[in-house]
Write a structure and sequence with these properties.
The chain has helices at residues 6-22, 34-50, 52-58, 63-85, 90-102, 111-122, 127-138, 149-171, 179-196, 198-203, 211-216, 221-226, 231-251, 260-282, 296-310. It is globular, with a radius of gyration of 19 Å. The relative contact order is 0.12. The chain has 15 helices and no strands. By secondary structure, it is mainly alpha-helical. Helix 1 packs across helix 9 and helix 8 (149-171) packs across helix 9 (179-196).
Length: 321
């Protein structure tokens, strides 16, 4: 009924990723200080409260990479919260956050900015990825709608694939061949968010689902407003979930291109997020009156199987930058 040709949406996003990677990075960091330790501890607390799946996955990384990953999450979280709760002043706040995280922070700077500055320097994260992220998040100010999946993929690149590309520098990866997989995984994760949060987003005045695909299944804005699960909605969601799972599958081979000590963490983040799709299906595609989730016990139960899929094997080289 509706199809998506990966080559149509993927090529421009890979150009963006390549240009950002070529933009370079800032100088190595100064030695850690007491304020830096406080800053990283604060980022850990932010991640534990607001990003439980990410917090769990990051806990599977070595200590230095773990705290850098949580600094990345906290940097993104602040930007996202500004857009969601900043009110009429949100645009100015986001611009101020951008300036603060581009400049070297002083000892009295925001703790997240201090930790993020250290992390991006330590792991040589190209600054343009962070700028692409902030530009992507700023698109929500206008509450745009997306006609096609290609349009939605471009948005998802900005707000999610960029995060994966930055995380890849923290985890370690074998080379540029890993980039397309990170882009796909970011889009898969963001689309999962969108499918989970349809009702919540609609009440906030936002619609991310491709409007041409809604129309192809006989759905319109009025149907979303009613929040009724009928056969049209079920068929639409089955199509969306099937494509989303194909994206996860297409991204999975990239995990083998990551450093061995980071593969389990990224695989866990991917698989645990994909499990949200199972919960949506288990509740008859009702994303209007409930928020799909994976319980803590279910996450822990799945971890051994995820580890088995990415476990080190004989002759498996350690991927590096």
């Amino acid at each position: 009924m509706v199809s998506s040709q990966a080559e149509e949406w993927e090529a421009p996003l890979l150009r963006l990723a390549g240009e950002a990677r070529a933009s370079g990075h800032t100088a190595p960091p100064a030695p850690s200080t007491a304020i830096l330790a406080r800053a990283y501890a604060y980022c850990t607390s932010v991640t534990a409260v607001h990003g439980r799946t990410f917090h769990l996955a990051a806990s599977l990384l070595p200590a230095d990479k773990r705290r850098a990953a949580r600094a990345l999450y906290a940097f993104c979280r602040i930007a996202d919260d500004i857009v969601d709760t900043g009110g009429a002043d949100a645009s100015r706040q986001l611009a101020a956050w951008r300036r603060q995280t581009l400049a070297p922070p002083g000892p009295s700077a925001n703790l997240v900015a201090i930790a993020w500055d250290d992390a991006r320097r330590r792991y040589r994260i190209p600054q343009q990825y962070a700028e692409q992220l902030l530009q992507g998040i700023a698109r929500d100010f206008d509450c745009p709608q997306y006609r096609t999946f290609d349009d939605l993929a471009a948005y998802a690149y900005g707000v999610a694939s960029t995060v994966g590309l930055m995380l890849m520098h923290i985890v370690g990866f074998s080379g540029p061949a890993a980039i397309p997989y990170a882009v796909k995984l970011g889009i898969a994760l963001q689309v999962t968010n969108i499918l989970r949060d349809v009702g919540e987003d609609w009440r906030a005045g936002r619609l991310y689902l491709p409007t041409t695909e809604l129309a192809a299944y006989g759905l319109a804005a009025a149907d979303l407003a009613r929040g009724r699960v009928d056969d049209r909605w079920r068929a639409f969601m089955r199509f969306q979930i099937d494509r989303n799972r194909r994206l996860y599958a297409a991204a999975w081979p990239g995990i083998a291109m990551l450093s061995r000590d980071g593969r389990f963490a990224v695989a866990a983040a991917s698989a645990l997020y994909e499990a949200i799709l199972d919960d949506i299906e288990a509740h008859d595609y009702d994303v209007f009156t409930r928020r799909a989730h994976v319980s803590t016990w279910d996450k822990l139960r799945r971890l051994p199987g995820i580890w088995w899929r990415v476990r080190p094997r004989e002759g498996d080289a350690h991927a590096t930058l």
